[in-house]
Amino acid sequence: MNIGDNVVYADEEGLERSGILTAIGSDKDSYNDLKLKDGVFLYKSKKLKKYVPVKPKSLESIYIEVTGFGNKIDYILPNELIGIF
């Protein structure tokens, strides 16, 4: 999964929706430079000066922007993703 992929996710009512993954972000200040590469969330480590995987305990701070039908934008958590198509 990468930015630009078509994804399927569960909305707040549990219904399946689909759209294009358009961006990722985080509410943590230390994750201000994020990437998504082959399904792995990466952040730029200031200490190591390279991209490293986001720690599992910090995945709750990551959100995904999905643009769906009619340019409707949803913000979802990684665990709400069902798959790609």
Write the layout of secondary structure elements.
Elements (H helix, E strand, L loop, with lengths): L5 E5 L5 E11 L7 E4 L2 E6 L4 E4 L8 E6 L5 E4 L4 E4 L1
Question: What does this protein structure show overall?
Answer:
With 85 residues, the protein is mostly beta strands. The chain has one domain (6-84). It is 0% helix and 52% strand. The chain has no helices and eight strands. It has strands at 6-10, 16-26, 34-37, 40-45, 50-53, 62-67, 73-76, 81-84. The strands form two sheets. It has a five-stranded antiparallel β-sheet with strand order 7-6-2-1-8, with no helix packed on it. A hairpin with a 5-residue loop joins strand 6 and strand 7. It is elongated, with a radius of gyration of 13 Å.
Key traits:
85 residues; three-stranded antiparallel β-sheet; 0% helix; five-stranded antiparallel β-sheet; single chain; mainly beta
Give a concise summary.
By secondary structure, the chain is an all-beta fold.
Distance between the termini: 10 Å
Q: For the largest beta sheet, what order do the strands appear in spatially? A: 7-6-2-1-8
Shape call: elongated
What is the CA-atom radius of gyration, in angstroms? 13 Å
Low-confidence regions: none
Strands, count: 8
Helix/strand-derived category reads: mainly beta
Rounded mean pLDDT is: 93
Strand content: over 45%
